[in-house]
Every structure is written in structure tokens, then in C-alpha cells.
């Protein structure tokens, strides 16, 4: 019995949508997933050839292990105050010294890094979700393009740092009273950063969708009456995953920098809730006497941001077939 013509056309459309897919469907239905695995294997092979990205990946994984596993090995409480041990240098009991209140700097670096990276990941997820949704809707539906792009341009025209400062000033106390000091400020900061950082992702995704919807497999899928939600989920999103992943890596770096800036200005997390930016803020007054208290969190912020940016560079080169091998 022959298959319906619509089903055959849709199967050919699905094969055309996946770059590098075979012209004919495999005899074994289980082998249908092989092209996808081979594509990811090829992307990993291309990524490994980018030396800067590989070095950055090693550094970033090392930082993740430092902040993730470190507190399990170094069990000193980051908020424990010991006035008798304040302002100590590098010792066996405190390898990175102590601050003006006698709190262990190594423990605070680990805990602060965990909070800073968590802020970067959650804020990036919010910005990426908003930006991808607005970019896809704007690029695919012509009637939504003008209003969504005007909204994007409006957000791009806003001064983001004063807007963030205003949001933190207005909503910090109410959220802290309802969710606690740490939880309320965390929710406020990741939401504020996320809703003010999606515009670049939206414009990048919109540009890719505009070019993609004129491709043959999209036009063929439209001709057989494929619904718009299925078209977006099955054909459009898988083909714009490359710019979305690159935007994700850059969004993590931007969110970490923004949170550090807010904490450095004294508008971030409370003093007993350390982050790398808060450690910088606390160490400014004694920077000349104890410079390592500024150098250590600043170095970790810089290494994290640089490594994430280089990973994004490597992903862009590996996932874009037009610039592979350069």
C-alpha cells in the first residue's frame, strides 16, 4: 500500500530541514536519528580544533568545579565571623586569608562564585526564552514583525543601568520581606537582568528566521498545510539553534558582569550573601592594604567572562558551516 502524498512530501521536507541529512530515508527506522548524532559529532570535532575555545572550556569547567564541589571539601562557613582571625594573610588555616571581620575568603569565593554563576545561568535562560520567542514570532509572522520590532527598539533605546538601578531600588524591600533577603534579591536581579537583555537575541533570531522561511523545505511544508506551531517547532527552531546557543553563552557573561556591577554599587545582594561583586565592594576600602581581596574576585570574574566568550566563539565557528575550517 502506497503512503499518502502529503506524508511523503512532509518526510522529504523533514529530511531537507536537517543539514547533511541523506537524500533517501534509511531502511531501518532506528537509523533515522543517526544524522543528528553525526552532526553533533562533527560540531564537537570542529569545536576541538578551536584552541582558544578548548582552553576556555577547561578553565570554565575548573571554575564550575571550584564553586560546585569546593564547599563540600572546604567546610568553613562563608558567613562565620571570627574577630580574632581578622585581616590575616595566607595561612594553612585560611589559604586565601580573612577579611576585616575574620571571615574566610576562600569559603566566600566559593559561595560567591556559586551565586554569581547561578545568576548568570538563570538570567540567561530568561533572556534567551524571551528573545527567541519574540525573534521567531517577529520573523515568521509578518503582521507581528512591526509591533515586536518597535518594542525591541524601545528597549534598546532605554538606558539599561539606570533602569536596573530603579527596579532594584523600588522592588528590593518588598521582595525581601516576602521571600527573604537572599531569595527576594536573587529573584529580583535575575528577572531585572533577563527582561533587559533579550533584545540582541531577538534581532539575531529574527534575521535568521526571515531568511529561513523562504527556503524550499519551508515552502514545501506550507504547501501541504502544515500548521504554524508545528512548522515553528519542527522546522524553524532546529535550524536557528546555532545563533541561540551562541547568544546563550554571551548572555551568561553579560549577566555575571551586570550582577557584579550592581553588587559593586551596593545595590545587589546583602553583605551576608556573598557574590564576587559583593566581595569587590567590601574590599574597596582596604584595597591598598590588602590588594589580593580585590584581585581574587576580579580575576575570577574576568576569567569566567573571557572563557564564556571564547566558548561562544568556538560554538559559532563549529555550528556555522559557512565559516568552518577558517
TrEMBL record:
GO cellular component: plasma membrane
Highest taxon of source: Bacteria
GO biological process, one term: transmembrane transport
Ranges for region Disordered: 1-35
Topology class, membrane: Multi-pass membrane protein
Name of the featured protein: Peptide ABC transporter
Recorded family membership: Belongs to the binding-protein-dependent transport system permease family.
Keyword flag Membrane: yes
InterPro entries: BP-dependent_transpt_permease (IPR050366), MetI-like (IPR000515), MetI-like_sf (IPR035906), OppC_N (IPR025966)
Segments forming domain ABC transmembrane type-1: 113-312
PANTHER family assigned: ABC TRANSPORTER, OLIGOPEPTIDE TRANSPORT SYSTEM PERMEASE PROTEIN APPC
Keyword Transmembrane helix attributed: yes
Main localization, broad class: membrane
UniProt subcellular location: Cell membrane
Keywords: Cell membrane, Membrane, Transmembrane, Transmembrane helix, Transport
Transmembrane segment boundaries: 53-74, 117-141, 153-171, 183-205, 240-269, 289-312
Family matches, as SUPFAM superfamilies: MetI-like
